[in-house]
User: What shape does this take?
Amino acid sequence: MTSAEPLRDGAVVAAGARARVRVPASTANLGPGFDSIGMALGVWDEAEASVEGDSLVVEATGFGEGEVPLDESHLAYRAMVAAWQALGLDAPQGLRLSYRGAIPHSRGMGSSASASVTGVALGTALAGLDLADDTVLRFVSDIASSIEGHPDNASASVYGNVTVSWAGDGDAGDWRSAVLAPHPHLVPVLVVPQRRLSTATARAALPTAVPLAVAARNSGRTALLAHALTADPGLLMPATQDYLHQEARRPAYPESMALVDALRDAGIPAVISGAGPTVLALTSGQGEEAVRAVAGDVEIISPGTTSRGVHVVSSS
Ligand SMILES: Nc1ncnc2c1ncn2[C@@H]1O[C@H](COP(=O)(O)OP(=O)(O)OP(=O)(O)O)[C@@H](O)[C@H]1O
Ligand SMILES: N[C@@H](CCO)C(=O)O
Assistant: This one.
């Protein structure tokens, strides 16, 4: 744990405690900002946990229903336990977790980060910590980012808005994030394919080293991206040009890369969303119609961004 002190070693979460949280989806990278830039999207998972009974009961509805494990290996439950461990608390014997998933899995909309954030947030809320407190939010972001292995999606789901995250100088798991308001004209449009691609598979396609000239080129575009997203969307075309990861992963999502190429040829700044295969177009007002004119009859959503990150809906 890096940003909150343990409560009471060996203590357990109080019987009868209950909390319900909402957590937004996210898009990561936005082109060159690999593993560092994220943006929250207006699609929300919601989950409730209550300390009751004498065993673990997990229910999953929506995306994930019939697919995710309904036991101790459920990602949100594992994240909850990680939070309690970091806080010096033992897991209660009985717990009911109900998860309603609105974020499609393995498409590039940060479903795993949202599930991790959900679990850590529920764990801290059941422990009586206030999710509106900055230190607690940082704790949630740190633990969820550590579970993910990178902070871009989790930080956006925790804080909302656009996040720029970096590894601190301390131990592994020490992440920091600056939170930026996206330009009001920015309209994210996502083309969401039916096929899935796990982040693990997409990461396995990446090189372990890149030449200095490539890194330098990508640095310039990433710095420009932070400016274009917040102050000057007119620069989004050069700002979304990536040199680190998308080409290396092209064989894993050829149709998505073909669409990114076609949208960019049409003057629409487009990138792969997260580890793909969803395509993200960062439009400035022309929105869905311009994307549909290029993409054709495919599933397109315009969920908007959100300035709100994870929050408690109710607790007792
Ligand atoms: N609500 C959830 N409940 C339980 N497990 C989940 C949930 N959401 C995601 N997961 C787990 O995470 C996996 C998907 O994670 P993965 O990192 O591959 O994709 P993603 O997070 O949707 O996309 P990306 O990281 O590219 O944005 C699922 O197969 C499942 O194992
Ligand atoms: N930065 C991550 C986002 C997906 O989790 C990647 O591209 O692998």
Residues 11 and 30 are 42 Å apart (CA to CA).
